[in-house]
Amino acid sequence: MSTEPGSAAGPTEPGSAGGSTEPGPAGADQPLPDPGSVDWSELEGGVLDELILGTPREFTRDELVEAAGLDPEESGRLWQALGFPDSDPQERVFTRADLHAARKVTTLSQDWLPDPSAREAVARAIAQSLSRLAEWQIGMLAQMAAAQVGELTPRAAAQLAAQVLPELEELQSYVWRRHLAATAARWTAGAQRSDAQHIAADTWPLAVGFADMVGFTRTTRRRSMDELGEMIERFGAVTNEVIANGRGRVIKTVGDEVLYVTEHPADAAAIALGLRDRVRGEPSLPPLRIGIANGMVLARYGDVYGEVVNVAARLTSEARPDTVLVDREMHEALRDDPRFDLRRIATLHTRGYSHLRAWALRGARER
């Protein structure tokens, strides 16, 4: 390539002769400007973009790849794994923060993640979590801006972004570290109970529960968009509270369904009954049907996989409204626990399982 970042034909490469020291990611060494320092009377479309990214878009893909020492083909796959479409190699779409991140990828590739497929999987996992967070945050900022000025204008959005985004970024880092510490503690405790083979394979004994709102499609037809939004928010708030208080973890919420896991079967059962009872007292929410299975689970990139997950999903689809079904392994783990009542039901014939044994779970006081 004849043109390098920093040559007369392109922008100066960060850290090169004649250029400034390479900044860190946006929000660290490149904080968002104070709202009072921006000339809002000359606001252009790129102002909000630059406020969020921290630095202007000044590098082409080819310049970024060469300066960071990345393989061109892999860099394209990583960019797509992050959820972004492929760009014109000569279009200036990348910032100094992108270059900083690309160099970090190079270092990580050499020292920690030599397998390209593992790097792409990590990129996908991070992107799937953060893209949902970004969608929510931009929607929240839009609502805040509209409430303050009566309508969402580019100026209002940019002013609000300059004020709020640095605080959100700091808060995100704090929450991430708290979850990192909690996960590390769980991992250490789990490693002490599991053998080296299971640890190396990311397989762990877990109870997996699905909780699904009954008749969600019919319910959405009868509610306005505002009412639907309030229902989803309430469902998320209730399920997160009950699951967290029950020593469980929310793996994901997809529309009308939440997937959670616990280390101990009894905790999963108590959470299921707690969810059922709590939702009974929520007029805005339809009843739940819940399925729980117990066994070895593949835990990878923030999600869970395996037959246990599939069985829990099938039990949920077969459960009646306001009921909880558990599999044989859950029954074995709970049958001597005086807090629970288990009643065998007819063998289920469901997709993928022609003879699935199941038990209805109730609290001991419901006998």
How would you describe the overall organization of this protein?
This protein has 367 residues and is of the alpha+beta class. The chain folds into 2 domains: 132 residues, no CATH class; 171 residues, Nucleotide cyclase, GGDEF domain (Alpha-Beta Plaits), CATH 3.30.70. It is 50% helix and 16% strand. It is built from 12 helices and 10 strands. The strands form 2 sheets. Strands 1, 2, 3, 4, 5, 6, 7 and 10 form an 8-stranded mixed sheet that branches. Strands 8-9 form a two-stranded antiparallel ribbon. A hairpin with a 2-residue loop joins strand 8 and strand 9. Helix 9 runs antiparallel to helix 10. It is globular. The N terminus is likely disordered.
Layout of SSEs?
Blueprint: H1 45-53, H2 61-68, H3 72-81, H4 96-111, H5 116-149, H6 154-193, H7 196-200, E1 203-213, H8 216-221, H9 225-245, E2 249-254, E3 257-262, H10 265-280, E4 288-300, E5 303-305, H11 307-318, E6 323-326, H12 328-334, E7 340-344, E8 348-350, E9 353-356, E10 359-363
Parallel strand pairs: 4-6
Antiparallel strand pairs: 1-3, 1-4, 2-3, 4-5, 6-10, 7-10, 8-9
